Amino acid sequence: MQSDPPTSADLFECRQCGECCRGYGGTYLASPDIENIARYLGITKQEFIQRYCTLSAGQYLLCQKRDGYCAFWDGLCTIHPVKPRMCMAWPFIENLLYEPSNWDVMAQACPGIRTGFDKKDVIRCVRRKLGELERYRNESISYNKTGGV
Ligand code: SF4
Ligand code: SF4
Fold it and tell me: In CA terms, which of 9, 54, 86, 97 is 20 to 30 Å from 133?
């Protein structure tokens, strides 16, 4: 049953179809992403960049396999605990704060997105999810810097 006001769980539930892990667009990496994923894989940042990244307009992107899927897709995300911020945030992306009507457009590509919500509910859920994500990532990064596994 839907909550009042609707929560992010009302707006979205991942179907794990993998559609967002393939195709055009690419997954951009911020510096903390590179640091976290390299540590998770047990390789240096330089090795990670050489093996798994490509450059586009001066920014690192995750490489794709020949089938068009992300290098880390294998029926599920194999780096789920440290996947890039862009992946963690999806579909609650910043752009929706300015263009909440894009929610319904994104739903055409993501079967986990439910539509028909008021724009203010979309904005409220995006704000909350992005806030949670920042807190999680700050904890994760400070944990990594203290030498945690
Ligand atoms: S496209 Fe949507 S439902 Fe499918 S895996 Fe990605 S987030 Fe989940
Ligand atoms: S890192 Fe994981 S969630 Fe992100 S595109 Fe690759 S497989 Fe998908």
Answer: 54
C-alpha span between 92 and 14 (Å, rounded) = 12
Give me ligand 2 centre to Cα 5, in Å. 30
pLDDT in single tens digits along all 149 residues of the chain: 778 899 999 999 999 899 999 876 788 898 889 999 999 999 999 999 999 999 988 889 999 999 999 999 999 999 999 999 889 889 999 999 999 999 999 999 899 999 999 999 999 999 999 998 887 666 655 544 444 33
Instruction: Give the residue, by CA position, lying nearest to ligand 2 atom 5.
Output: 21
Beta-ladder partners of 12: 113
- Within 13 Å and on the Cβ side, how many CA atoms surround 98? 2
**Within the chain, what is the greatest distance between any pair of CA atoms?**
48
Predicted TM-score of the model (pTM): 0.78
